[in-house]
Design goal:
This protein is α+β, with helices and mostly antiparallel strands and about 70 residues long. Helices cover about 40% and strands about 15% of the residues. It has three helices and two strands; from the N terminus they run βαβαα. The protein has a two-stranded parallel ribbon with strand order 1-2. Helix 1 links the parallel strand 1 and strand 2. Helix 1 crosses helix 3. The radius of gyration is 11 Å and the shape is globular. The termini are far apart.
């Protein structure tokens, strides 16, 4: 993938959020989509709603809350 690549990850559950933050860490622009209000609210506050080692820091680093 090139430097200007963008991906969209549908579903910010255990797999989707982990994938989205990992891709962002490699420099890829990521758009994450979810329809569950609690998930969206949590991510807007840059908080992880489940535990995965190292994930909270990546959500804080790459989540822009929009």
């Amino acid at each position: 993938m090139g430097r200007n690549d963008k991906v969209c990850v549908l579903g910010m559950g255990f797999i989707g959020l982990t994938l989205a933050t990992t891709l962002a860490e490699t420099g890829i622009e990521v758009i994450g989509i979810d329809v569950v209000p609690g998930v969206i609210d949590s991510l807007k506050e840059k908080k992880c709603y489940f535990y995965e080692p190292g994930l909270t820091s990546l959500v804080k680093k790459y989540g822009d809350g929009t």
